[in-house]
């Protein structure tokens, strides 16, 4: 039985999650800008899933290994902190370089580095929240983390529009055709990525390990082989609830990737009647969706805090199913709208879904796994994100023209249907009341 953990104040829970602001600002910049950057550099619409392979592949390789390694790490700064810092530094450097890409291959290569860095940071951060908080505060901790995701992505989506409102020219382009407001947004992200994570680990450091915990970790075998065996053993012994969550996540993440990859192209067609990523109308579509995307992330931020009492009372599963259904309806509505201000309406549903996605599944997971294996199971849980992404990248190019008519609006609607399937799958997950012993 692990020792009781100190109860943190709401302020401390906020401080420990500030690092997610920088981490998720980076993800928001990818979601809102990589498809237009790829289009400017000459990518075909049907190739977008292949160009987004960096995220799922690096997540599949990096997060389980980093998770297992962080469970076994004994450093003066703790088990998780070294990975935060390494990942944050690499992420900042990649964000700084990304908007200077002069060719498609360069942008794709930098995205691989950026996603690897994000994944080095992400999994230990999830484990850090679970490590640091008493089980009674898990819902508040993970939903606060979700709220920072919403806030960060609100700011990242909105940053080009804010720069325009401050007087920058929306049509000013660099030598490679990339808007200057995009470049400045990435530079802001580079600063935030490191600064916010540094703040969190300084304000709320990891709990020191007891002598018994240190002895247990020191007795474990080290090296790549031992790490891979630990991952394999954890997969074989995976709790039932975690296996059930995998079904939900297959539908959920296939849907979200469809949405992120094609929503700007869908809005460009339905609202601005353009398919040319180098046109002024497409740049206007990017700004318009950036504002709508900021709105859905603001909804996610507010909703994440509002969900805490509902999650405690009704359970994370029921709340998550409702939010996914709302997001599915929103995605199904979006392609049929032709006014730039009407696209804000379905963003309410998408925001509810996103706010729940980044919090409630982790509440369900934390109740289902043994605490001494938190790192490796958080890494394996991420595999349930990236495997659907890989499946999407491998399958969508084959059905994009034949089944979906080469129309990005149909891809967004496919995402909506799959979110509804995820909502149904969530209702079949049975989470135990007590954390199982290993």
UniProtKB/TrEMBL annotation:
Keywords noted in UniProt: Membrane, Transmembrane, Transmembrane helix, Transport
CC terms in the record's Gene Ontology section: membrane
Entry GO MF terms: transmembrane transporter activity
Coiled coil stretches, renumbered: none
Gene3D superfamilies from the UniProt entry: MFS general substrate transporter like domains (1.20.1250.20)
Name of the protein described by the UniProt record: MFS transporter
Taxonomic path: Bacteria, Pseudomonadati, Pseudomonadota, Betaproteobacteria, Burkholderiales
Sequence intervals crossing the membrane: 50-69, 81-98, 180-201, 250-268, 288-307, 319-337, 343-363, 375-399, 411-429
Cross-referenced InterPro entries: MFS, MFS_trans_sf
Subcellular location: Membrane
Main location: membrane
Taxonomic superkingdom: Bacteria
Topology of the protein relative to the lipid bilayer: Multi-pass membrane protein
């Amino acid at each position: 039985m692990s020792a009781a953990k100190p109860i943190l104040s709401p302020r401390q829970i906020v401080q420990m999650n500030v690092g997610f602001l920088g981490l998720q600002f980076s993800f928001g910049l990818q979601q809102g800008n990589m498809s237009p950057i790829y289009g400017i550099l000459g990518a075909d619409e049907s190739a977008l899933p292949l160009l987004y392979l960096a995220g799922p592949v690096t997540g599949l390789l990096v997060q389980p290994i980093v998770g297992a390694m962080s469970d076994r790490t004994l450093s003066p700064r703790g088990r998780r902190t070294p990975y935060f810092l390494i990942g944050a530094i690499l992420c900042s450097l990649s964000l700084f370089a990304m908007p200077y890409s002069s060719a498609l291959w360069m942008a794709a290569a930098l995205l691989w580095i950026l996603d690897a860095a994000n994944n080095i940071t992400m999994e230990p951060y999830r484990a850090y929240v679970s490590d640091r908080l008493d089980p009674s505060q898990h819902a508040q901790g993970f939903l606060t983390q979700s709220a920072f995701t919403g806030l960060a992505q609100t700011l990242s989506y909105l940053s080009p529009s804010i720069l325009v409102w401050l007087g920058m020219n929306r049509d000013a382009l660099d030598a490679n055709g990339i808007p200057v407001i995009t470049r400045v947004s990435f530079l802001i992200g580079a600063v935030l990525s490191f600064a916010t994570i540094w703040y969190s680990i300084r304000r709320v450091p990891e709990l020191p390990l007891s002598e018994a915990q240190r002895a247990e970790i020191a007795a474990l075998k080290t090296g790549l082989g031992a790490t891979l065996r630990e991952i394999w053993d954890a997969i074989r012994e995976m709790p039932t609830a975690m296996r059930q969550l995998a079904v939900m996540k297959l539908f959920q993440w296939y849907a979200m990737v469809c949405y992120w990859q094609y929503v700007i192209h869908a809005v460009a067609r339905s609202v601005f009647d353009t398919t040319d990523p180098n046109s002024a109308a497409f740049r206007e579509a990017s700004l318009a969706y950036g504002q709508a995307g900021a709105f859905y992330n603001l909804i996610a931020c507010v909703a994440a805090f509002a969900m805490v009492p509902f999650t405690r009372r009704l359970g994370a599963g029921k709340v998550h199913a409702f939010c996914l259904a709302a997001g599915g309806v929103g995605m199904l509505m979006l392609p049929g709208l032709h006014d730039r201000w009407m696209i804000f309406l379905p963003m309410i549903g998408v925001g509810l879904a996103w706010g729940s996605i980044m919090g409630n599944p982790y509440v369900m997971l934390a109740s289902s796994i043994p605490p001494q294996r938190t790192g490796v199971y958080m890494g394996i849980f991420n595999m349930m994100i990236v495997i659907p992404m890989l499946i999407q990248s491998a399958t969508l190019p084959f059905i994009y023209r034949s089944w979906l008519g080469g129309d990005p609006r149909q891809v967004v609607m496919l995402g909506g249907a799959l979110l509804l399937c995820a909502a149904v799958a969530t209702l079949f997950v049975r989470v135990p009341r007590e954390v199982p012993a290993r």
